[in-house]
Design brief:
- The protein is an alpha/beta fold.
- It has helices spanning 9-26, 41-52, 80-89, 109-122, 159-165, 183-188, 202-210; strands spanning 2-6, 31-34, 62-65, 67-69, 99-100, 128-131, 153-156, 177-180, 192-196, 228-233.
- It has seven helices and ten strands.
- The protein has one domain (2-226): Rossmann fold, CATH 3.40.50.1360.
- It has a seven-stranded parallel β-sheet, sandwiched between helices. Strands 4-8-7 form a three-stranded antiparallel β-sheet, covered by helices on one side.
- Helix content is 31%, strand content 17%.
- Helix 7 (202-210) links the parallel strand 9 (192-196) and strand 10 (228-233).
- Bound molecules: 2-amino-2-deoxy-6-O-phosphono-alpha-D-glucopyranose.
- Residues 35-39, 66-67, 80, 131-134, 140-141, 161, 165 line the site of 2-amino-2-deoxy-6-O-phosphono-alpha-D-glucopyranose.
Length: 243
């Protein structure tokens, strides 16, 4: 694992966008799984700028959705896929065959897990997994206590995730379960980037990077990845020097 601290969120976002473009320039048919959440939004805007400026050709790439609230879909404001479509997939004008997301409204959620597991397997694994970190250290929707060995699965959401998740919605919304790419896919990904931004995440980031590697702190799995990058802004990294 390598760690880099950027002065601010804008610099972090520009660097990350250029890095994603570099991965695709090296492997035009790359399979990418990119997080929802507030943290990477500016990265996606910068990446769209690079595509529109012809700095990278995405016509052969495939994108996999990372996670979703059960019962919600891309058309629902506040869903995970709503933001990824709004900020990335739609502005990129991707063909339908380039995008694979969980249908979290499906009757058979296990089949949805098998569907995404199969896409990842068929493409020989993820070339890039870009994730954020929840306030309880979750990665995607892998909550504390999730085995590192799981592939895609359905999860009961932690209280903290339900509370913090309200920020994505206009009004109070009932969230109970999630469907998510698992940490086995993180372990097997050729490269993983964890983006962390803001002072409120600083204590969790310190525990994830300086504490023990444990399933109780999902983000600690980054410590085990040979090609794992943890990229943070100064506010998020503010407690690391003190450890
Ligand atoms: N499902 C998402 C995750 O995929 C995201 O990475 C994380 C951090 O989100 P944010 O960047 O908004 O802090 O929490 C949410 O629950």
């Amino acid at each position: 694992m390598t760690f880099h601290q950027f002065p601010d969120h804008a610099t972090l976002s520009q660097y990350t966008a250029e890095h994603i473009a570099a991965i695709i320039n090296q492997k035009p048919d790359a399979l990418l799984c990119l997080a929802s959440g507030d943290t990477p939004i500016e990265t996606y805007h910068r990446f769209v700028d690079l595509v529109k400026a012809d700095k990278v050709d995405i016509s052969q790439c495939t994108f996999v959705g990372l996670d979703e609230w059960v019962g919600f879909g891309p058309e629902d404001f506040g869903s995970c896929s709503y933001y990824v479509f709004r900020d990335l997939f739609t502005p990129l004008n991707l063909r339908p065959d380039q995008v694979h997301v969980f249908d979290a409204k499906a009757d058979d959620l296990q089949a949805e897990c098998a569907k995404i597991d199969a896409v990842i397997k068929a493409k020989g694994g993820l070339d890039l997994l870009l994730v954020g970190m929840g306030m309880n250290g979750h990665i995607a929707l892998n909550e504390p206590g999730t085995p590192f060995t799981l592939g895609c699965h359905v999860v009961d959401l932690a209280e903290s995730t339900i509370t913090v998740g309200q920020k994505y919605f206009e009004k109070e919304t009932s969230l109970t379960q999630g469907i998510t790419v698992g940490l086995r896919h993180l372990t097997e990904a050729k490269e993983v980037i964890l983006l962390v931004s803001g002072a409120k995440k600083a204590p969790v980031l310190r525990d994830a990077l300086r504490g023990p590697i444990t399933e109780e702190m999902p983000a600690s799995i980054l410590q085990t990845h040979a090609n794992g990058q943890v990229w943070v802004d100064e506010a998020a990294g503010s407690l690391l020097a003190d450890v």
